[in-house]
Amino acid sequence: MTVIRQHHLIDSIADALQFISYYHPLDFIQAVNKAYEREQNPAAKDAMAQILINSRMCAEGHRPICQDTGIVTVFLKVGMKVQWDADMSVTDMCNEGIRRAYMNPDNILRASILADPDGARSNTKDNTPGVIHYEIVPGDTVEVHVAAKGGGSEAKAKFAMLNPSDSVVEWILTMIPQMGAGWCPPGMLGVGIGGTAEKAMLLAKEALLEPIDIQELRERGASNRAEELRLELHEKINKLGIGAQGLGGLTTVMDVKVKDFPTHAANKAVAIIPNCAATRHTHFTLDGSGAATLTPPRLEDWPEVTRETGGNVKRVNLNTVTREEVKGWRPGDTLLLSGKMLTGRDAAHKKMVDMIARGEQLPVDLTGRFIYYVGPVDPVGDEVVGPAGPTTATRMDKFTHTMLEKTGLLGMIGKAERGPLAIEAIREFESVYLMAVGGAAYLVSQAIKSAEVVGFPELGMEAIYEFDLDDMPVTVAVDYKGESIHQTGPQLWAEKIEAQAIEVI
Asked: Counting runs of H as helices and runs of E as strands, what totals does the chain give?
C-alpha cells in the first residue's frame, strides 16, 4: 500500500501551476514553429513569431505566457491501494496547491475566479476553487493532470445534442467560423462525442491533455472512427483559412483530438473546446516517494525566431496622433505604438457607460485617446507591470457606440475580431480598432515603460491604467471605413487554398 502525504500533493500542484505558467509543452512549441515556417500570410506569420518569441522570453524569465493565467482544472486517477496521510480532503489539498501557486511572490499569477457568478461576481483573490475531477482506478499511485485554461478560449466552447443521423463534421465546420478568433488560434481543438451532455464536454476537455501528434497519425493512417475524424477535421478546418489570430492563413488548428463514449440510441452528444496559443498543462504521478519533480525543457529546444514585419510598419506617437493620421492606416498594417495609452476592460467600461448615462464626469479624459482592453498581471521585482496581453474585444462591443459618441475616444486595442455593432460604430465615428496578439503577453509588457492607475482603483486588475509605451506591436484590424481584416483575411486565404494554390497540411 502506498502512502501519499498531504504536503506532497499540495506542493506538486503548486509547482505544476508555476511550471506551466511559463513553460509551454515542447510539442506545442514545435508545432507552432512548423506552422510558422510554412505560413505565407505575413500578418499571420508575424503573429506566430510573436507567440514563439514570447514563449522563449517566459521560459527564460519565469513569467506568465499570458496575462490570463486561467481557471485551474485538475484530473486525478487515484489508485485503489493508495492511503492518504492527510487531515484535508483531496479537493482541499488541490485548492491549497492552487492558492500557493497563484500567490507565489516570485511569480504572481493573476487571480481571475469570481464567486457568485450571476450576482456580485466577487474575486476570490487566490484563483480558487479549481475544477477537480476524480477517477478511482486499480493501482497504488495517484496520476495527476493539471491545466490552466484561459477564459477567452473557454468562452468559445460549443455543445450540441445532434440527431443520430447528423454529421459531426458538418456541425463542427459550422461552429468554427462562429467562434471567431477570440480563442487565439493557432491551437488545438478537443472534441467529445457520446455519453451524456456533461460526459461529452468532459471528453472534449480531457482530449486537450494529449500531445500533438497529427502528423504521425497522417503517416500511419487511421485505425478507428475517432482517428478518421481527427484527420478529416484537421484538414477541413485549416482549409477554412482562418489562420493565426484570425488574420487569414494556413494553420488554424495544429491538431484535433477526438474522444468518444457509448451513448443512448436516441442521442449524439457532441462538444468542442479549443485550447489557445497559451496552452498550459502538465502531468505527474505520485508514488509515495515525495513531491513530483518536473523537468524543464531546454532553452535550446526553442527556435530562434526574429520578427520580419516588412515594409508596412508605421511608428505611431499616441501623444500626437490625429484622426487624419488614423485615416491613413489600412487593415493588416503593422504599427509600433509609443506614448501614453489608457486601459480598461469589461468592468471599467460598464462603470464609464453608467456614469455617462447619469451625466457624471469620468475619471479620465478620453478625447483623442486610445484604450487597451487588458487586465495585467501584477508586477514583480523591478517590473512596471506584469504580462499584459489583450483580452477579447467583442466583450466591449455593446459599449463601443456610447464610448465613441460621448467621449471622443479615437482608437481601441484588443484581441481578435469586432462584431457588427462595434464595426458600424467605428465606421460612423471614423475611429479605428487595433489588434494585439493573444499569447504574447510578456512580450507586450516589455514595451510598457511606466504604469499608473488613473481610474477605478477598486477594480484591481480591471482598473484604468495609463501606460507609457515604447514600440508596442499591433495590427490594424478595423480601419476608419469599417473594413475588418478578420473578415477579408480568412476569406482571401480560404479562396487561395480552395484554388489549390496552397496545400494545407
From this structure: 15, 19
| Alpha carbons 29 and 81: distance in angstroms, whole number | 37
Distance spanning both ends of the chain, measured CA to CA: 48
pLDDT digits (tens, 9 = 90+) for 377-388: 999 999 999 999
Q: Which residues are catalytic?
A: 349
In the chain, the domains with their CATH numbers are 1-150+298-308 (no CATH), 152-277 (3.30.1330), 310-490 (3.20.130.10)
Contact between 477 and 35 under an 8 Å Cβ cutoff? The reply is: no
The string over 190-202, giving b where at least 16 C-beta atoms fall within 10 Å of a residue's C-beta and e elsewhere, is bbbbbbeeebbbb
Q: Which of 92, 182, 79 is nearest to 137 (CA)?
A: 79
The amino acid at 310:
G
Go through 99-134 and write b for each residue having 16 or more CB atoms within 10 A of its CB, e for each that does not. bbbbebeebbbbbbbeeeeeeeeebeebbbbbebee
Residue 424 has pLDDT above 70, yes or no: yes
Helical H runs in 62-183?
Answer: 90-102, 151-154, 168-179
Query: Torsion angle, CA of 160/166/169/171, rounded to 10 degrees?
Result: -40
CA distance 501 to 16: 44
φ/ψ of 239, rounded to 5, equals: -70, -15
DSSP 404: H
Grid coordinates in use for 359? 451625466
Place of cell 492527510: 86
Contact in structure between 54 and 441 (CB atoms under 8 Å): yes
pTM metric for this prediction: 0.93
Cα separation, 317 vs 337, in Å, equals: 6
**Consecutive H or E run containing 282:** strand 281-286
pLDDT digit string, tens, across residues 135-158: 999 999 999 999 999 999 999 999
Hunting for cell 501519499 — which residue is that?
Answer: 4
Q: What angle do CA 281, 285, 286 make, to 5 degrees?
A: 130
Computed over its alpha carbons, how large is the radius of gyration of the chain? 23
**Coil vs helix vs strand at 468:** strand
| Residues in contact with 294: Cβ distance below 8 Å, sequence separation at least 6, in sequence order | 15, 16, 19, 282, 284
User: What's 22's DSSP letter?
Assistant: H
Alpha-carbon distances of 501 from 286, 492, 496, 498, 504, rounded to whole Å: 51, 12, 6, 8, 10
Question: Locate cell 483623442: which residue?
Answer: 368
